[in-house]
Amino acid sequence: MFLISDKFYKQKSQISDFVKNFDTQGQLFVKGSRNTIKLFDLDGITVNIKAFKKPNLINKVAYKYFRKSKARRSFEYASILIEKGIGTPVPMAYQENFDLIGLNESYYACEHLQCDLTYRELVETDYPDAENILRQFTRFTFDMHEKGIEFLDHSPGNTLIKKEGNGKYSFYLVDLNRMIFHNQPLDFYTRMKNLSKITPHENMVAIMSNEYAKLYGEPEQKVFQLMWKLTSEFQYRFYRKKRIKKKLKFWKK
Predict the structure, then answer these.
(1) What is the DSSP string of 152-195?
(2) Of 154-158, 173-177, 197-201, 238-242, which range is least confident?
(3) Closest by alpha carbon to 91, among 3, 20, 206, 168?
(4) Pairing of strands 36-42, 27-31
(5) CA-CA distance, 82 to 102, in Å (whole number)?
(6) Domains and their CATH numbers in the chain
(7) Phi and psi dihedrals of 88, rounded to 5?
(8) H or E element: which one contains 229?
(9) Most CB atoms closer than 10 Å: which of 80, 158, 164, 233?
(10) Which residues share a beta bridge with 94?
(11) How far apart are CA 169 and CA 132, in angstroms?
């Protein structure tokens, strides 16, 4: 199944060919353990196509009969985000290849966004103008929460940041296949939990808490205490999981 956005319907055959020839054509952009991303030229527009890892047997069946594939969710969620005024690369198309058992390959195509940095640079480097970016990012996230959007993978690598000049920045979400769209603004706990994967640094949490408190109308100390508590709990679980995986690898050897 191949579905394309109305905006790119005239280029349907070209984009479909990019997907069909994904293994042999295109410029490699990301080669991950799970997914591969390649770039293609479409009349001067750079197309970003993600090939998702083939699912295991259980997920093959699930993605055919019970759940939407990651490619389809990425396309549909990106379309919803744009409708709601939340930044994300423009969705173009998705394709799902099925066999008798279930889903095999799946692909998501969007316009490639040239960004200046990701949130990860703020976490891992002494980036210039970091506090200003953090405060604008917090306002971006607050707007998302007000619109009932819960981005379950709201983590450092999944926000692209683009400089707009005069100290202003734009933010774009990627890796969209895990999102929940609520019919009302998020409650306080869900908002703070949604920010718990963003950074392990207390000083960054303090800045975000200060900005979020001004927007949300809650005392800054209350915002900071819950955001930092949930951040610390997430970091504990994250590193405990890494230690367990390391031990399992050791015993396998």
Answers:
(1) TT--GGGEEEEEEETTEEEEEE---SSEEE-SSPPPHHHHHHHT
(2) 238-242
(3) 3
(4) antiparallel
(5) 30
(6) 2-111 (3.30.200), 117-241 (1.10.510)
(7) -165, 150
(8) helix 220-252
(9) 158
(10) 3, 108
(11) 9
